[in-house]
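User: My collaborator sent over this chain with a note saying "see what the structure looks like." That's all I know about it. Can you take a look?
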Amino acid sequence: MRSKEVQLIGRFLETIRINSGRGTLRVLDAGCGNGYTLDCLSRTHAECELQGLEFTEELAEIAQARQLEGCIIQVGDVRRAPFPDGYFDVVYTERCLINILDYAAQLEAVREIGRILRPAGHYLMVECFDDGLQNNNKARVEMGLEAIEPAHHNLYLKKNELFRDINDWFEVVDLASFDPDRETKILQSNFLSSHFFVARVLHPLLTRGDWVRNSEFVKFFSFLPPAGNYAPIQAFALQRRPGAP
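Assistant: Without extra context I'll predict from the sequence alone. Here is the result:
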């Protein structure tokens, strides 16, 4: 799952750089955690000026200990980001917003991301949405399996509500339109849908046992292209409106 996330983010950055004609992209990983994604990108995207922002000091220290060349990682709150207006070309989050347990504060974070993006800059949102979880649970219940509740420390986003409330800052852009090779189906909002259907529906249906991460069964079906809307984790490209507040 994580490798697919990193692949999607990397392809998105590559496409933005090529389409923009910029030699270098200034990129922020907002909520960078232990720096794993930054580490991966630093090996493959030397043309990007990478930075990380992490709320939890212990995780930021782990990320800093990776000593990624040219990558500044600092402790901070995405709701009050320590950067000037219009500083970044691209900001991305990986399941960062869902750790903010108040919807108004989540909106505050998204608008702050808009502030630190240059006009027409891009925010790649890889977050959890309740509709994917609901569809997955519907399939599970149909198969006689129990529904899975969101973790108590997460607040899943309601897609229509969120996009309505940030419309003054962002335009939602079809993620697939950024991909020069659509046959690979890497840049898809539902990029993890098939994985979640296999891992959370088919695998437990066959085993009737506890859910096992990275089972050989799930790995075998990892080649499947994304289909349906069965994953809570989804990706959306948002472009900052030039006339945003």
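A starting point for your reply to your collaborator: The longest strand covers residues 117-128.
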